[in-house]
Amino acid sequence: MTTTAPTSALKSFSFGGGVQSTAALVLAAKGELDYRTFLMANVGDDSEHPETLAYLREYAIPYAQAHGLELVVLDRVMKRSGEVRTLYQDLTREGSRSLKIPVRMSNGAPGTRSCTASFKIKVVGDELKRRGATKDHPATVGIGISLDEIGRANKRRCEPHERIEYPLLERGIRRIDCARIIRDAGLPVPPKSSCWFCPFHRPETWHDMRRDEPELFERACQLEELLNRRRDERGKDPVWLTRFNRPLRKAIPDGVDTLPFDEWDSGCDSGWCMT
User: Fold this and answer.
1) 3-class DSSP state of 14
2) Structure pTM?
3) In this predicted model, what pLDDT tens digit does every residue of 200-225 receive, in sequence order?
């Protein structure tokens, strides 16, 4: 009687382009984490922060290649048309009424969002299905949540053919440890990853952007204005990119810096972004 050898379990790490994901990449290169495949769902070259994309191309991808690791950047591809769709395009295209990002409503509460589900979770999930993951034979997906962010560990936010694990959390690795791991590998520490227009930015992040990246800050102001022009045309209340219930230009005045707070507390608890 012949037997069929079991196929190796499909395993990948959700690469966010930030400190924790990069530390996981280094640990995998050293053989301390059992991942050979890293999948990055790119919300769009016009949506990811330019510094994150620059680090990815200059450091992360070459490092992965040099150590025999697979680091794949995935776009969101529309199934009917085959076109690549970015988050910024979704927000700004003519006739769009969807607000996939967690804008602040007039009452100060964050609105519902689908950006993480549509542009991160589903994109990685589709790639794993393409590689053979099924509900009966799920892929293992590593998420870059560290010990100091244990409250963000959430196994519910994944596709049916995935099983989530938190290798940094399980090893007691904190974000400060991640920075040390990256430096010890001879790499610069990457900037915090996020969309440049993310409403989860802390006030000091917006202040830094206005001071250091004024053109990017201006684009964020223009995006907020566009969303509100469209809402005004439909008789809806305005929405904001900050919690201050007023336009970004006024909420973040020029030439004023804020005192530093916990720079890692983004408000996003999924682990799929900002890692």
Assistant:
1) strand
2) 0.88
3) 999 999 999 999 999 999 999 999 99
At residue 262, the pLDDT reads 45
- Residue spans of the domains in the chain: they are 11-83+114-195
SS3 164: strand
CATH fold for domain 11-83+114-195? Rossmann fold (3.40.50)
Token pair for residue 140?
Answer: 């293992």
Contact present, 231 and 237 (Cβ < 8 Å):
yes
Q: Are 43 and 195 in contact (CB under 8 A)?
A: yes
Q: 175-184 and 19-29 helices cross at what angle (nearest 10)?
A: 50
Which of the 8 DSSP states describes residue 200?
T
| The 11-14 sheet, strands edge to edge | 70-74, 37-41, 11-14, 139-142, 162-165
pLDDT tens digits, 182-196: 999 999 999 999 999
